[in-house]
Design brief:
- By secondary structure, this protein is α+β, with helices and mostly antiparallel strands.
- The protein contains two helices and four strands.
- It comes from Tetradesmus obliquus.
- Pfam families: ubiquitin.
- InterPro entries: Ubiquitin-like_dom, Ubiquitin-like_domsf.
């Protein structure tokens, strides 16, 4: 295999890998985070992101420790850490979803 073929194969593999990653991550979804103080903040996440990732973003942006967060949809469904957003009822890429962030005593 000459260098030209190697580079073409490498580029094709890179393109395929990028498509695979995009498919795994899923579509964008809009989530409005309602913080304990009542303020609301819109965010965009990939449907493949985990609830734990969302909690990490909340911790970094709003200084609420991950271990003290409880995330609940406006329908009252608790979001569980290991699940992806695609697995959570009421979260779709079609419409913004309100997620209430509350602090637990843990």
């Amino acid at each position: 295999m000459d260098l030209g073929q190697l580079e073409a194969t490498k580029a094709a593999w890179g393109d395929e890998r990028a498509k695979e990653i995009a498919q795994e991550e899923g579509q964008d979804c809009s989530i409005v985070l309602q913080l304990p103080d009542g303020t609301q903040h819109p965010h965009t996440f990939k449907m493949g992101a985990t609830v734990a990732y969302v909690k990490l973003q909340v911790e970094q942006a709003y200084s609420i420790p991950m271990g003290k967060q409880k995330l609940t949809t406006s329908q009252g469904k608790t979001l569980i850490d290991p699940l992806s957003l695609a697995d959570c009822p009421g979260i779709t890429p079609d419409a913004a979803c309100l997620v209430v962030v509350s602090e637990t005593g843990e």
